[in-house]
Structures are given as C-alpha cells and as structure tokens.
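To fix ideas, we give here one paired sequence and structure record:
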Amino acid sequence: MLRYLSIISIFATLLLGACSSHVPPELEIAEASITNAYLSGAARMAPDQYQAAQLALDKGRKLSDSGKKTEAQPALLDAIIKSHAAEIEAYRYQLEATEEQLDSAEEYILRLEKQRSIYFEALSNIYDEQKLSEIKISSTGNGYKPSSNYRVRRGENLFAIAARRKVYGDALLWPLIYKANRDQIKDPQQIYPGQVLTIPRDITEEEKEEARVTARESKIFQQSGQSNGKKQ
C-alpha cells in the first residue's frame, strides 16, 4: 500500500513540475515503476513481463532522448502498465509459494495427529479406561480440521484435488466436488486457478462409494495412473 501511495505521489509531483522539468513525467514514472517491479522480485519470478516492460522503457527513453517526446509517450505508458503487471505476477508467485508451505505444515500436523493417535492406542493397552480418560488429550480441542473450501491452483484438476489429504485423500471422490460445484463447473475437466470450490464434508459411506463407482465408470482421469485413487 505504501508503495502505491508513493507512486501516486510521484505522479502528482511530476505532473505539477512538468513545465519546469526537461525530463518527461512519463519517463520518470516508467523508471519508478520498473524499479518497484525489480524490488518485488519480478526479474526472477516474472521474467517475461519484466523484460517486456524493460524493452518498452528502453524504446521510450530512446525516443525521448532524440526529441520525439510525443512518439515516446505510448512506449512509456506501455512500460508503466507492463511493470505493474510484472509486479503483480511476482506477488502472486510469492503468495502461491506461501500456500505450498502452509500445505506442507498441514501435512506435518496430520502426521503428528496420527502419531498421537497411535500413542494413545498403545496407552489403552496398558491403562484401564478410567485412567486413560484422565490423561488423554481431547482430539477435538486443537486438532486439524479439514477445510470446507479449496482454492484451485495452477495445473490442478478435480482428481488431484480430491487426492489431497486435507480434502479427501481419495482421488476417486472427485465427483463429490464436481456435484457440489455445478454452478461454476460445467465440465469436470475444466477448472481454473483461483476458483474457490466447496468441499462437502457430511458424506455417508454410501455416497462415497457411489462417487467412486461414478469415477471409475467415467474414466475421465484414467490417465492419472491411479489404480485405487488413494493418495500415498
């Protein structure tokens, strides 16, 4: 937010001082935009957009230096727009990386929960039920709760989403997700990054088995190479 406020301030300052400056305000704004994109990591995380912005800036600067200020304006404006696009892409990349780290943390929590279950199962073989109830930590207190929503990431499909442990851990249950999101999914093979899907939770074993039968009969995601749909 502070960065965008500073850009607005630059616009205002340059436009007010345009009459007394020999440098076109568009050139200074374009250079500031390129700098902001670079500081966001766009050169590394959005190289195509950043390079396109740099080329537009170079073109506009050359035209401006040769006295063709009117011809330079479209190139400089293009540089500003592409710089902001590169900056946004860089921040989107960082956000997706952060989400991947959160997924890893969730999987680690699940492993700890499983280990804790094994531990208390072992205790039950040693202590009677009364003593165990005194020391057992409630699994519903701070345990991991699967989310009822899921945001689609780049390259994912319903088969892969259903296979995620925090969703179902069973790829063959993808028809449940498809059925619950028919308002935004017309074709189960066409979902898009950024879509927020509803993940049904109150599902009976009968409904799960029906979904598995549907998945096997449809053969839509047969190329995924999963024989039973279970995520290892």
About this structure: Residues 74 and 109 are 53 Å apart (CA to CA).
